[in-house]
Amino acid sequence: MIRLGATLVLSGALLLAGCSSDGADKPAPSPSPTASATPSPSPAAAEPKPPQDRACYQLDYTEAVAPTVDVARISCTGAHTSMTYAVGPLDVVVDGHLLAVDSARVRDQVATTCPERFDAFVGGTAEDRRLSMLRPVWFTPSVEESDAGASWYRCDAVALAADEKLAPLTGRLQDVLGRADGRDRYAMCGTAAPGTTGFQRVICSAKHSWRAVDTVPFAAGRYPGVAKVRAAGDGPCQDAGAAAADGALDYKWGYEWPTAEDWKGGQTYGLCWAPD
């Protein structure tokens, strides 16, 4: 995970798991000789203001995955790629000790809070969110801002258009995955059959030929091993492929299973694919 920035580890969208199965500053000037040798005290730095909730921004991918960002907000009625859905205070005092803004405990706090609040913001089921290209990203003050008194976190929602590229956000984002049109707008598709040459995950509004249609969940815990996670998808994904074919006897289907690396990153499910 990127330090206090987002993980755009997209249910494997940036880390593809498995393969498919087919049917089968200047220096200060020196004081002048007439200047007093006693410097005047500098005015205290003003504490930076916290970000605003429901603000929108035009971020690129690199800015979205950075731990801090300094981009001016813009009107949400114009083109934007990021929307803030939660802002809150950082818990930086433990047993009377002040923690650094980039400490592990602070990182963990934000990395837990923002995904939880994301789920409630975009709505839908866990499967709806896994099958979409919407993802949470998060930011904290820079070390310099923290030293000046800033202590907040900011959670934003973004959508991936493709690998390391953000898509524009349109329409109302709150509960977007609780609506059929929202699920379709931000759905996950592929440029080719998963596991084949030319396959790339893309948002379904882009040119594509396959769509992620179902998930194969596993119980949390130790990674079951490649053999088990691979075999577990055959039946469910074949059924999902048949359902997507709408009754046709000749149909194709694909399955991506989670690797041990994906599992460690939190992806404890596979993805079923079908031609679209």
From TrEMBL:
**Keyword Signal assigned:** yes
Q: Does the keyword Signal apply?
A: yes
Tell me the keywords, alphabetical order.
Signal
Q: Which residues form the Septum formation-related domain?
A: 140-269
Q: Where is this region: Disordered?
A: 23-52
- Signal sequence region: 1-23
Q: Which InterPro entries match?
A: Septum_form
Its name, as the record gives it, is Septum formation-related domain-containing protein
Q: Which species does this protein come from?
A: Nocardioides conyzicola
